[in-house]
C-alpha cells in the first residue's frame, strides 16, 4: 500500500495480515544435497533432454489470504473453498516449453 491508504491505515492502527497462518518449511540440508549432486546426475545428458516439470494449484473460487484488520485483532477465516484445478508446467533446460496441462476434477472418480 502506498499513498493515502498507507497513512490512513497507520493512523487507525490497521494492518495488512496473512489470514491462514500456515507456513511450509524447507530443510536446508536437502537443498544443499541436491545442489551438490544434481550436476553428477545430469552428466552425460544433452541439454535439450533435461526437463523440469512442476505443478501448482489454482483455487478458482478462493478468497484472498490477506485482509486489513485492526491492530491487535486476530485474523480468522472460515473454511476455504477447495474447488481447484491442477496445472502442470513443463520446460526444458534450453527454454523449450509445452503448453500448460490443466487437470480438473473427474465427474466419476
Helix and strand pattern = HEHEEEE
Task: Report strand %.
Answer: 25-35%
Q: Strand order within the widest sheet?
A: 2-4-5
Number of helices: 2
Mean pLDDT: 78
Give the structural class: alpha+beta
Structural Rg: 21 Å
Residues in helix, %:
10-25%
In whole angstroms, the N-to-C terminal distance is 44 Å
Could you tell me the number of beta strands?
Answer: 5
Shape: extended
Major sheet attributes: 3 strands, antiparallel
Low-confidence region ranges: none
Structure description:
21% of the residues lie in helices and 28% in strands. It has helices at residues 4-11, 28-42; strands at 14-18, 51-59, 66-70, 84-92, 101-103. Strands 2-4-5 form a 3-stranded antiparallel sheet, with no helix packed on it. A two-stranded antiparallel sheet has the order 1-3. Strand 4 and strand 5 form a beta hairpin.
